[in-house]
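TICKET #2291
ISSUE: user wants both folds in one file
ATTACHMENT 1:
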Amino acid sequence: MIWSGIEIKKDNLISVINNSIQNFGMIKNCEEYVSQCKCKCCKFDNNYIVLYPGEYEETRLNKNHIKIIDDNYYNGKKAICLRPCKEDEFKPLDCRGYPYFPKIDESDNLIILKGSKCPLKDEELANHKKRFFEIWDFFIKNKTIFEWLKKIELIGYEEINL
């Protein structure tokens, strides 16, 4: 597979994700809402974040703010954040894409879920949503990720119309 001029091999997919799309997940409008929502997306009651297969192991960034709660969730992991991540720390793909998440249904169709904790309106998320689709349109072509997205379950998300 080729993406943005980079040849992607099965064994280095997560490394490419972690190193080439670092700005993905920086939502400009988030800064305006932090005082109101107090980073709801980084607070966990009965929910969790999911870490893609190999994602946690591949990063060289500080991940002390991540607590693993299931070390083998269909070859990925379940985790919670102990605090919001800092700019120079590991930010999981689940968090980078939030409030959106790709899911593969039982008929192998891509559906998009939206997290219910995010106070931003669709028009405020337009650029982020566009980037999300560009990235996931490519990465779900990876068989490991595709199969993993079929198995996992998320809490606090609703399916949205494409």
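ATTACHMENT 2:
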Amino acid sequence: MYKLTNLTLAVLMTLLLAACGNDDETTPSSDLEDTWTAISVDIDLDMTTEVAGQTVISDVVITGENLAYDLTLDGGDFTTDGSYDMNVMATVSGVPQNSVDNYSDVTGAGTYSTDGDVITINGSFYELEYNGIDLYASNDEQSANYTINSDDQLVISQNETSTSTTGGATTTVTISSTSVWERK
């Protein structure tokens, strides 16, 4: 069961942020250019994996805590800096697996572009591990919707379902995530 759980999580990390990107060149929206401080991050992953005649159903809920983390968007480039905790509550085939992981002195960088209300990034806004597995190992291009709400907060939402086959396992993942940032 442990190996099957790790296989499921390995597939999860491949799919977690891999989203279809837009090949068109776009320019960053000037209203995004600023330094933003994270005030919340919530991720819900529902996953079904079929492998070797077995079905593994997983539900993973990740909530950011103790957020002292900044995102700077500047002319198509982004940087991240700070610390946070991630509370990970997972149920894999009915077996609960919970952890709180601390991330300190986190720094990152990448590029971004916008097209309407869609932000596409190359890189990752967060680091995240579960049971020693880097869930953001893939820094592929990813897209999400964004808005600046009436409180002048940046809200980034990603909702997608994808299916992939890797190493004989077929996995369908539904990702729903929202992060909220305020101007620093």
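RESOLUTION: both attachments delivered.
EXTRA DETAIL ON ATTACHMENT 2: The chain has one domain: 2-183.
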